[in-house]
Amino acid sequence: MTRQGSCLCGAVAFEVNGDVRPVMFCHCSQCRKTSGQFWAATQVPTDQMTLTNDAGLTWFRSSDHARRGFCDACGSSLFWEMDGEGATSIAAGAFNNPTGLTAGTHIFVADKGDYYDITDGLPQLARF
Predict the structure, then answer these.
(1) Could you give the C-alpha distances from 121 to 103, 117, 118, 124, in angstroms and in order?
(2) Global pTM?
(3) pLDDT digits (tens, 9 = 90+) for 104-123
(4) How many Cα atoms within 13 Å fall on the side-chain side of residue 125?
(5) Tell me, what's the pLDDT at 29?
(6) Helix%, strand%, coil% for the chain, nearest 5
(7) Do 102 and 42 touch, CB atoms closer than 8 A?
(8) Distance between CA 20 and CA 60 in Å, rounded?
(9) 55-90 per-position pLDDT tens digit
(10) Residue of 89, 113, 90 lying closest to 28 (CA atoms)
């Protein structure tokens, strides 16, 4: 299946060919700060993703082992890559409908915000 998506303004656009992982919902403090809530993302091998427009793409080194990609024009948080993994996590909300995505697991729930509860019945991991 081919899926397409972009940032809010279109300065970053991408296409994914192949299978994607079920969406993980990350509740760690970094994801909450970069997105304003928990971050919902799927993941693909990096070679299955093509950037069809990268004019606005900027990478931020968010830790000593990972970087985050966002649009420098509209601020959309789009990608997360761990060094040496060969995979790119992509914000689920950046995909155009129909996405064909499925919900998977909540991770880093020990770090979740204190203002919400997780009640959807999906598996929850204290860490990852």
Answers:
(1) 11, 11, 8, 9
(2) 0.94
(3) 999 999 999 999 999 999 99
(4) 11
(5) 94
(6) 10, 45, 45
(7) no
(8) 24
(9) 999 999 999 999 999 999 999 999 999 999 999 999
(10) 113
**Planar angle of CA 84, 72, 96, nearest 5 degrees:** 75
The answer to whether the Cα torsion of 103, 125, 40, 67 is positive or negative is negative
Is the distance from CB of 69 to CB of 80 less than 8 angstroms? yes
How deeply is 3 buried, as exposed, middle or buried, from its count of CB atoms within 10 A (0-12, 13-18, 19+)? Answer: buried
Terminal-to-terminal C-alpha distance of the chain: 28
The chain-wide mean pLDDT, for the chain, equals: 96
